[in-house]
Amino acid sequence: MTVPANLPEPTGSTPPYLTPAGADGSTVVPPARGPASPLRVISRGASTIWSNKKARIGVVVLAVFVLMAVFAPLIAPYGATENGFGRNQAPSGAHWFGTTAAGEDVFSQVVFGARISVLVGFIAGFLSTLIAVVVGLSWGYIRGPLADVINFVVNLVLVIPGLPLMIVIAAYLQNGGMTMIIFVVVLTGWAYGARVLRSQTQSIRGRDFITAAQFSGDGAARIVFREILPNMTSLITGSFFGAATSAILAESGLSFLGIGDTTTVSWGSMLFWASNSNALLTGQWVLLFAPGLCIALLATSLTLINFGVDGLSNPRLREGSGR
């Protein structure tokens, strides 16, 4: 575009000949746009996730289990360890899922067992994601010997098979209860997320706004957590749901193997006691089916929510986007 020579020198950030004029010929100054508020960002993200049909199903299923865990004493007709009933009873009006070999109500145990799985999943998922974020972003930004040390540690954790490592660690930390399970799951579950975040950090590190921040004198910590981190929100959210899913399955697997406190009522411990009492041979198939189905549904709900989270970072994956 050719600019006439007799136009006045611009005094603001926007030249007047590039600013649209109002109806009376006056100059219209566009409103300044500040950064979006965190509440608005969260609202947009939730709307994007809810627009995905699979994610909606996942949210509903997850909400059911969360409510079940929170209001377990109100939902369950009996206590989780109340054993004053007949042994190995078939499903009936008094005991919807029957009773165990110890005379405990199976439905009540399923309801109370949701507490352990939901709590372990969210706590272990959060801690694993937190470690992955700190390690992954630092690893992707820094250079030199420290980056090599982090690379060695992460690769070492990734190379060792997860389940055998969890079994070995749990064997030395017996009687630790739920805390031990969370510790073992977090210790073995952060490395993959750290590697994914490191790759994305390296990609963002070379962009112009990072170079501008470096020239302006910002420190490494500020650049990593104020400039790079906000651009990885969807990836971190997806990592959390993935870590929570792995934590739920790991807790169930360890409890099923009898590692940890088997007296605590959880879906994994229910499978452990059902296997020890030969539930299938005695016709008590509900003892295995009910907790197994709950584990599968809870893990699937988190996976379905991840489909909606993917739409935050990749608009092509959003439903109704005109693909």
UniProtKB/TrEMBL annotation:
SUPFAM superfamilies for the chain: MetI-like
CC annotations in GO: plasma membrane
Molecular functions (GO terms): dipeptide transmembrane transporter activity
All residue ranges annotated as the ABC transmembrane type-1 domain in the record: 114-306
Keyword Cell membrane: yes
InterPro entries: BP-dependent_transpt_permease, MetI-like, MetI-like_sf, OppC_N
Keyword Electron transport: no
Transmembrane segments annotated in the record for this chain: 57-76, 116-142, 149-172, 178-197, 232-250, 286-309
Key words, A-Z: Cell membrane, Membrane, Transmembrane, Transmembrane helix, Transport
Membrane topology recorded in Swiss-Prot or TrEMBL: Multi-pass membrane protein
Top-level taxon of origin: Bacteria
Chief location category: membrane
Regions annotated as coiled coil: none
Region (Disordered): 1-30
Subcellular location: Cell membrane
One Pfam short name: OppC_N
Family: Belongs to the binding-protein-dependent transport system permease family.
Name of the featured protein: Peptide/nickel transport system permease protein
Organism placement in taxonomy: Bacteria, Bacillati, Actinomycetota, Actinomycetes, Micrococcales
